[in-house]
Amino acid sequence: MLEQDDLLAWFQRLRISEPGRSMINHIRSSGPSRRVGGGRSNVSGRYPSRKMGVTIQFESHRVELAGIYEMEHDLDVLEYFDQPPAIRLHYESATGRRMGVLHTPDFFVIRREEAGWEEWKTEEELRRLNAHNPNRYSPGSDEPWHCLPGQAYAEQLGLYYRVRSAAEINWVLQRNIQFMEDYLRADSVAIAANSQDIVTAYVLANPGLILEDLLRETAGRASPDDIFRMIAANTVYADLHAAPLAEPLQVTLFVAQEIVPTASGDKVRQPQTSSITAFHCGSTVTWDSRLWKVVNIGESSVGLLSEDQQLIELPRPEMETLICKNRLQVTPPASGRGSNSAAYERLSRARESDLHVANQRARMIGHYLESGELPAETEAARRTFFRWLARYREAEHSCGSGYLGLLPESGHRGNRTRRLSEA
């Protein structure tokens, strides 16, 4: 939960009015205004929230519990409160009679850039309520459903009122959150340092690596539990909205991340796969329903070769725009050891100390390719860094993975020619 100083800074940053501040302070200091109960068609209960430090009530395990899961693991949500104090809504009945009713929304949510009430319902219930009185719940143009009386009440305080439909729920995300629940809660369990270096090395060497391949290639060196802990900690990034972790053949992994400030001033790591650093020479991408092969990644442009051998160069800013708009996507490599056997073989023979060094070099090079900023002299001398960069690009062209050029392979140094015969 937000500390008082953080809340005050949030008020000032968003210029929340005094009536809005008073309402938010009242909600934060009040407990739930009612106890929820189940029925024939729904199951109620309580969810132990780590984010809030209390149990949160839900009236429906199919709708409100799904909403709780989303808010609990959404970095944009700073705080959320169940069954906030009732608000009065004014609207006309279906017969035109003026009405004023007390209404208790399901949640009050404080997000990084806004705050307001949220009411979660099934599509069937919303259609039924709309047929009973279209002046309260009605289909919207920019959002699936509106509650105009709720919006009118919230807007006078500088807040929002939002109707959330079960149709919005991403059930793949819900499945993944339930699959990862133990790992998301287990902050006290440290990830073995050697496992972290090994897993990071495999993903850095193969951006878009299939989870099943990672589990197979690291068997005996990194445990599946450590891999899932790293996914939970965003050290290794998997899009939890896209594919179920319980089906590892569908899951692709990356290590690209960016730092995002929170409303309270803290910084958290937010994964970001929409980046040129997620590609490497030899990658196959889909653009405008056509397949292209990445043949060169330069400092200012990227070279793409079409299936009919047409070569084009895109400026890096234009390439980034296409990626961010999801118009250009990397094609996951075929699963199986044969798809990148040379890289897997090199990584399986590498010592853990070499992987640790290569991971540090890869992060510096990734940051340089992303931002154009050189590392500090205390991290790497300019001459040394550009030697690493040359090896990275050479390995990209020769074996499709620049990471392999960063392995120091210190164990193979020296003259290993036998000086004495076996006799």
Describe this structure in words.
This protein is an alpha+beta fold and 423 residues long. It folds into three domains: 4-169, Trna Endonuclease, Chain: A, domain 1, CATH 3.40.1350; 190-337, no CATH class; 345-410, no CATH class. The chain contains 13 helices and 19 strands. It has helices at 4-14, 18-29, 64-72, 123-132, 148-155, 171-185, 193-205, 211-217, 224-232, 316-324, 341-349, 352-371, 382-399; strands spanning 45-48, 55-58, 77-82, 87-92, 98-103, 107-111, 115-121, 138-139, 145-146, 160-165, 209-210, 252-253, 257-261, 267-271, 284-287, 290-297, 301-306, 311-315, 328-330. Helix 7 (193-205) packs across helix 12.
Q: Which descriptors apply to this entry?
A:
alpha+beta, 4-stranded mixed β-sheet, 423 residues, 5-stranded antiparallel β-sheet, 35% helix, Trna Endonuclease, Chain: A, domain 1
